[in-house]
């Protein structure tokens, strides 16, 4: 008797292409290449902070759900941090929300505040999550290019991109991937443009403690900024604890409430052992932050020097984990295609900048910053020294 036909299931098509950061990490592993692609440190944050989380787990006080809005101690510490570093007076009970990393804070904010038919404006290049989550809201994602080599936003170009449907500006300073820090004057003009057009600001400031040149100023601290700005940050980048995924959103209570209304149906809460440890880190970790900033400044300078010796002209970032460089002096027109060659022949991996830009408008058109590559310097001295040594193979690898 023939077997009964089996019911077929719907065909599943991924909503997005494979994550380019994981792709580059796999490429590095396959060829034994130094991974300067994905932006995570290869050394952990302070042992005393990690010990606090371990003790909380073993003592049995932090193994169940944390409060949905976040551990009260962490919310108080975030408010104290904003007051001490930025002069912002924030109510920890009504104007702070703890999230599962900054990425969840961004996602929950977009899902809460943006509707189909709205427009979200961001400067390009951008953290790739911005476009993906905006797409899930049904809004249109509009980009304003940041011109190389300074990669600073032009308030006039921003204003030209705003329409009556523009709901929100996604601002990122210090900037990933370029390391640019928006100067106070430009920031004030951006806030003024948003206020004039009644546009909300979602300000991603996760690299706030990794500024080497100049100073970070939150958008919320600019006159007229607080009432329309949600600020997102996290412990991951500041304290080299990216896997803990402890972030926060601060801003006016009604906007924070809106974000929480979505966040409660995403993760509800997370990291109950990590949250009190991060609270202590924010209160007592300024010494570590200063030391890490200087260590990364030295790492930045070493990588920039190595890229220059390889015949390139890298951007000297004012902040963050990364430097970027145009590979066209070495004959590269497509950094995405060159990435596999560099992994195999030079033994080093970066992230093509086109992965952090909108796709081309027409078939056959080159993507923005097609010949540019991002390189991470948040690595140990030994790893970075090996990377710099291998970077000297770039001209031969690309020419062969």
Automatic annotation (TrEMBL):
Checking Pfam families in the record gives: Aminotran_1_2
Keywords associated with the record:
Aminotransferase, Pyridoxal phosphate, Transferase
A single Gene Ontology MF term assigned here is: transaminase activity
CDD domains linked: AAT_like
Cofactor(s) needed for function: pyridoxal 5'-phosphate
Per the UniProt entry, the signal peptide is: none
> Which segments constitute the Aminotransferase class I/classII large domain?
34-391
Q: What is this protein called?
A: Aminotransferase class I/II-fold pyridoxal phosphate-dependent enzyme
Q: Which organism is it from?
A: Citricoccus nitrophenolicus
């Amino acid at each position: 008797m023939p077997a009964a036909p089996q019911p077929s299931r719907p065909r599943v098509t991924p909503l997005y292409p494979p994550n380019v950061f994981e792709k580059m990490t796999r490429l590095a592993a396959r060829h034994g290449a130094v991974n300067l692609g994905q932006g995570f440190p290869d050394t952990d944050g302070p042992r005393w902070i990690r010990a606090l989380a371990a003790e909380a787990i073993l003592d049995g006080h932090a193994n169940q759900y944390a409060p949905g809005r976040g551990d009260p101690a962490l919310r108080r510490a975030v408010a104290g941090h904003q007051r001490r570093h930025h002069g912002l007076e924030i109510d920890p009970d009504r104007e702070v929300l703890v999230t599962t990393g900054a990425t969840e804070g961004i996602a929950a904010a977009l899902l809460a505040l943006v509707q189909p038919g709205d427009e979200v404006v961001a400067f390009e290049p951008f953290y790739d999550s911005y476009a993906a989550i905006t797409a899930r809201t049904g809004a249109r994602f509009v980009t304003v290019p940041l011109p190389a080599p300074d990669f600073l936003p032009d308030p006039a170009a921003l204003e030209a991109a705003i329409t009556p449907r523009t709901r929100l500006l996604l601002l990122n300073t210090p900037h990933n991937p370029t390391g640019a820090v928006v100067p106070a004057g430009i920031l004030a003009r951006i806030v003024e443009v948003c206020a004039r057009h009644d546009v909300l600001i979602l300000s991603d400031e996760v690299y706030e403690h990794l500024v080497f040149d100049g100073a970070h100023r939150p958008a919320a601290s600019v006159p007229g900024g607080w009432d329309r700005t949600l600020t997102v940050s996290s412990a991951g980048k500041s304290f080299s604890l990216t896997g803990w995924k402890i972030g926060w959103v601060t801003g006016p209570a009604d906007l924070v409430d809106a974000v929480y209304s979505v966040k409660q149906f995403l993760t509800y809460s997370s990291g109950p052992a990590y949250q009190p440890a991060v609270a202590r880190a924010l209160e007592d970790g300024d010494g570590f932050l200063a030391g890490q900033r200087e260590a990364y400044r030295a790492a930045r300078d070493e990588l920039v020097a190595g890229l220059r010796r390889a015949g390139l002209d890298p951007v000297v970032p004012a902040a963050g984990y990364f430097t970027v460089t145009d590979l066209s002096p070495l004959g590269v027109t497509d950094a995405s295609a060159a990435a596999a060659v560099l992994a195999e022949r030079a033994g080093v991996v970066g992230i093509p900048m086109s992965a952090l830009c909108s796709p081309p408008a027409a078939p056959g058109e080159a993507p923005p910053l097609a010949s540019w590559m991002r390189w991470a310097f948040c690595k140990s001295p030994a790893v970075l020294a090996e990377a710099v040594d291998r970077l000297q193979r770039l001209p031969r690898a690309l020419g062969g």
